[in-house]
């Protein structure tokens, strides 16, 4: 009887080990929750900076009714968004490398390539769409579009990383849809989506998978 229990226990341990190896080979699990936290902080600081820039141009974001901005202001806002993206990606790469070294996990695997590919396709489509909006001076739809395409990208990449990430994608997607019906307040939704949601998601992931 005792030998049977020992064999069953060993069998369960072997199965758990096999599942763990399959998880490592098929999913990108080096993603750190701290990446989400610092990406969110970057977006939050960037959003507040944008508000300050609007104030510098004499624009009260919560009082203006006509959301038409000068080309100089648009250029500064685009530069700010680009810098936020650079900071977010930099923090993401640094914390991913840090976690990989700490737990002796490979970074560049087939799972990594598949995740990046599935993430990149909706992001590329969204980037081209947003460039078209800029070209046609339809600035009011850019914030909702970035939230929607980013949400789709995260959901699309979920099958190659932690399954929890899809909940972030759904939240971004819903927030983007809601912002379509609240045009003119894209900055608020952008700060919530890319700032606050990322921070909350990152803290949850860090606590769960640290």
Q: How would you characterize the overall build of this protein?
A:
With 210 residues, the protein is mainly α. The chain has one domain. 78% of the residues lie in helices and 0% in strands. The protein has helices spanning 2-26, 33-56, 71-103, 110-135, 142-157, 165-180, 186-209. The radius of gyration is 21 Å and the shape is globular. It starts with a helix and ends with a helix.
| The number of domains | 1
Structural class: mainly alpha
Q: For the residues shown, what is the average pLDDT?
A: 79
Radius of gyration: 21 Å
How far apart the termini lie comes to 38 Å
Principal-axes geometry comes out as globular
Helix content: over 70%
Number of helices: 7
How many beta-strand runs? 0
Largest sheet: none
Percentage of residues in DSSP E strands: under 5%
For the structure shown, list the relevant keywords.
0% strand; 7 helices; mainly alpha; 210 residues; 78% helix
Set down the secondary structure blueprint:
Layout: H1 2-26, H2 33-56, H3 71-103, H4 110-135, H5 142-157, H6 165-180, H7 186-209
Helix pairs in contact: 2-3, 2-7, 4-5, 5-6, 5-7, 6-7
Brief overview, please?
The chain is mostly helical and about 210 residues long.
